[in-house]
Amino acid sequence: MGRIQRNATRLAINVAKILGIIAALITIRFMLQAIHKDVLGEDPSC
Question: CB–CB of 37/44 below 8 Å?
Answer without folding.
Answer: yes
